[in-house]
Amino acid sequence: MVTNVSMASAVNEGAVHWDPYDPRYFANPYPVFRRLREEAPFYYNEQYDFFAVSRYEDVVRTLGDRDTFISARGDILEFIKNNTPMPPGMFIYEDPPLHTIHRGILTRVFTPKKMNALEPQIRAFCANALDPLVAGGEFNFIDDLGAEMPMRIIGMLLGIPDEDLKKVQHFVDQSLSTEPGKPMDTSGASLGGDVYADYIDWRAKNPSNDLMTELLNVEFVDETGTTRKLRREEVLTFIGILAGAGNETTNRLIGWTGKTLAEHPDQRRQIHENRGLIPQAIEEILRFEPPGPAVSRYVARDTEFYGTKVPEGSAVVGISAAANRDERKFANGDSFDIHRERVPHLSFGYGFHNCLGNALARIEGRVALDEILKRFPDWEIDLDNARLSSTSSVRGWETLPAYAPNAKRGTRRPKAVAPETPAPVPAGAETWKMTLKTPMGPQEMTAHLIRQGDSLSGRVDSPAGSEAIHDGKVAGDVLTWILNVKKPMPIQLTFEVKVQGDLMTGSVKLGVFGSAELTGARVHS
Amino acid sequence: MPKVTFIEDSNGSEHVVEVGVGLSVMQAAKLNGVPGIDGDCGGCCICGTCHVYVEPAWRQRTGERTDFETATLEFAENVQANSRLGCQINMTEALDGLVVRVPGSDR
């Protein structure tokens, strides 16, 4: 645990330094963002070889000039640095003309008018989730609401009936869990976008009034001038993006709503007394604690910032969370004030790649806050049992328990607890320390592998937990296996590594999100 | 100060408002409570909730929309050739008397 003293010195002393993967900055990155804006508005990080801009105008320029700062290499630093290949239909990582075509298919589905029409369903879900908790006075912004409501609304939009959505969830849970002494069930159709594959095939035969049917039937002119429908893998990618983006970010917004308003009870009281303040409160929460703190771009042609040349091929990180507090644009940017003059924040991005789901996120955030205030006008956060996570794309609460002043404390526990004690290492297993360069930053994992002829078994331990591998194969010195992880999101990892003595190199396919490099070293017991 | 007239498309009611030079048509509507213009994103050209139709006589003076604006207008409904986002039209003295229709006022 880092003390406040060492945190303060890391931030305040010496040349300004920002490491997006350093957990010391997760809890409060804002002091370092302030120093970046004032002392190093065009910052270069040697270790990871990227540039960062933190002033409002510079982030706007980076996101707005799509000819210089392109998206085709991804918007997450690691994707850009690793030159991660993108699957077809990954429109968030495309440039014109493909991006215009693909995004255009979806924008008309996500109009504010259509999203606002979902209000009754959003409200009903919040009411159902919160009503049973009023008497006990304890509730969890993430477990009870954030991790549930946005997912259900996206499921509903896609046309997966609520009952079936539960089945999908159940299926995901089942296929991921292993009972002690039993191998993981590998019969399932796997995870990520593939979970929806059966629904796509079913919907193709049973059209309905939903987004999946619309995506299956929409006709558009593609980049070759051909009028066609989306291919099955494109539909899968679209749905993977929507399901991922529609869950995670709004979940974080709901968490930050709980945390920020608990720290500003006077403003919370004003909102409680005048619900007309909710829209501007949500905007201020979005500005103050953006769920997506930074967006990156690949530099496609030489350019410059503050007289410094930025060569083609560089990666530039636009720190929207820093720009959102730039004093040049927001007076007292580091204070939370729902009454501040409305200046557009950059939490939904800026330019052609701005958040397609912004209207949905807004209505979900507004309704959630309204329904919470109806039942819990005051709450405190149980920080001892709360957990924050930060990756290069999303920062927010994994679990955020709260309680009302009248609460009988301790009746509820956060659902997601710390990783369980790992099972004993299988006898005869070889142990490997592996590092994956993933979009969430470098990830450490330990593999315990047993080679028997051409088959491979064992398990992989990571901070997110311990999971058995399946479909393991040995072909000479090449090992392949599949690992289904639940956190930070359900995703199927496909490993392919080459073993040379005590070293391991290879790659891991990360569901639909491209692949990551892997290196490993044998651990001798 | 220049004036803008907003006409609600659904019922024809008119709102004539004065607006400082440099403010946008969206801000003019918000400051004066003109219905149908939400300006959810605060003028970022992101949300498409300040959709207006510029009356033909004024189209040349307001100029044409940018690619960026066209992309965001895909969020709006019933887009026409004279559709603009109010947040992207900044008021000048030359726009004194501007007339726009508000398609979203029946929401």
Explain what you see.
In chain A, 35% of the residues lie in helices and 23% in strands. With 525 residues, chain A is α+β, with helices and mostly antiparallel strands. An 8-stranded antiparallel β-barrel of chain A has the order 15-16-17-19-20-21-22-23. Chain A has a 5-stranded mixed β-sheet with strand order 1-2-10-7-3. In chain A, strands 4-14-11 form a 3-stranded antiparallel β-sheet. Helices cover 17% and strands 21% of the residues of chain B. Chain B is built from 3 helices and 5 strands, in the order E-E-H-E-H-H-E-E. Chain B has a 5-stranded mixed β-sheet. Chains A and B meet through helix 5, helix 6 and helix 17 of A and helix 3 of B.
In short:
The complex is a heterodimer of chains A (525) and B (107). Chain A has 525 residues and is an alpha+beta fold.
Biggest sheet overview of chain A: 8 strands, antiparallel, barrel
| Approximate shape of chain B | globular
Shape of chain A: globular
Radius of gyration of chain B: 12 Å
The helix content of chain A is: 25-40%
Question: β content of chain B, as a range?
Answer: 15-25%
> Regions of chain A with pLDDT < 50 over 5+ consecutive residues?
1-6, 170-193, 416-420
Number of helices, counting only DSSP H or I runs of 4 residues or more of chain A: 17
Gap between N and C termini of chain B: 30 Å
SSE blueprint and pairings:
The complex is a heterodimer of chains A (525) and B (107).
Chain A: H1 4-12, H2 30-39, E1 42-45, E2 50-53, H3 56-64, E3 69-70, H4 77-82, H5 98-107, H6 112-116, H7 119-130, E4 138-140, H8 141-146, H9 149-158, H10 162-176, H11 197-205, H12 211-217, E5 219-221, E6 227-229, H13 232-263, H14 265-273, H15 278-288, E7 295-299, E8 303-305, E9 308-310, E10 315-318, H16 320-323, H17 358-375, E11 380-381, E12 387-390, E13 395-399, E14 401-403, E15 430-438, E16 441-452, E17 455-462, E18 465-468, E19 470-475, E20 478-485, E21 491-500, E22 503-510, E23 515-523
Helix pairs in contact in A: 7-9, 7-17, 9-13, 13-17, 15-17
Chain B: E1 3-8, E2 14-18, H1 25-31, E3 51-54, H2 59-62, H3 67-73, E4 83-85, E5 98-102
Parallel strand pairs in B: 1-5
Antiparallel strand pairs in B: 1-2, 3-4, 3-5
